[in-house]
Amino acid sequence: MEEFKSGFVAIVGRTNVGKSTLINLLVGEKIAAMVNKVQTTRTAIKGIVNRENSQIIFIDTPGIHKPKTKLNRTMVETSFATIPDADVVLFVVEATSKDIGRGDKMILDKIKEANRKTILIINKVDLVQKEKLLSLINIFSKEYDFEAVIPICATKSKYRDVILDEIEKNLKEGPAYYNIDEYTDQTLRQLAEETIREKALQILSQEVPHGLYIEVEKMEFRKNKNGEEIYDIEATIYCLRKSHKGIIIGKNGEMLKRIRSCCTN
């Protein structure tokens, strides 16, 4: 009988390289907000994948960026802190990169310092020609002895098992840390907050940056007239600047209505 393996896998990378899209792909469920804005992920989110001979616990971290506020510094520190404790690191970079930029260099230095097993994930390969991709693989491979280099497009499911197989290969024998029917350690309340935040950021576009925090005040379960199970949710949206408050509310509350409508569809 094949030994059972388990371990924690940190997904690290610069802002907006597709880490949240990747963790949602690997877990097979929507657990992280996907918005085309930097610094969308505020905390380290766990996603759980249960396979026949392994349990893989993913940690999606805030994107690495140059911190300008105390909040941003905390986010970057959260990302770096996961690397030494991980059994395997997924280092996500963009295929459109021409060289190793400052942010990627910072992450590589932390990986080298921790000497962690690392798989290089080159995302968005659909945006570059093969020659440029091969050049980027060569540049990164000279910097660190990666367990594997996997070029992918995180929106396509065909890459899921390729990555999971490689991770499983690099895990050690261990127990299942979570029940096999769990896919995240987030509560329903946290998932609701993540969903509302994602929808709000999508609708508000460039008008309001990433500085939104959602707090669910109340959740009530009920069945609608069709017998479908639903939750009635009351939540508060917090913003960093007073000037954003009017934008989020909108004229006659129209923007809030749009956000609410998107969350129920």
Written description of the protein model:
The protein is of the alpha/beta class and 265 residues long. The protein folds into two domains: 169 residues, P-loop containing nucleotide triphosphate hydrolases (Rossmann fold), CATH 3.40.50; 77 residues, K homology (KH) domain (GMP Synthetase, Chain A, domain 3, 2-Layer Sandwich), CATH 3.30.300. Helices cover 36% and strands 25% of the residues. It has eight helices and nine strands. Strands 1, 2, 3, 4, 5, 6 and 7 form a seven-stranded mixed beta sheet that branches. It has a two-stranded antiparallel ribbon with strand order 8-9. A hairpin with a 5-residue loop joins strand 8 and strand 9. Helix 6 packs across helix 8. The longest helix is centred in the last third of the chain and has 17 residues. The chain is globular and about 55 Å long. It starts with a strand and ends with a helix.
Number of helical segments with 4 or more residues = 8
Mean pLDDT over the full residue set:
82
| CATH homology group of the largest domain | P-loop containing nucleotide triphosphate hydrolases
Helix content: 25-40%
Quick synopsis:
This protein has 265 residues and is an alpha/beta fold. The chain contains eight helices and nine strands. The strands form two sheets. Strands 1, 2, 3, 4, 5, 6 and 7 form a seven-stranded mixed sheet that branches. It has a two-stranded antiparallel sheet with strand order 8-9.
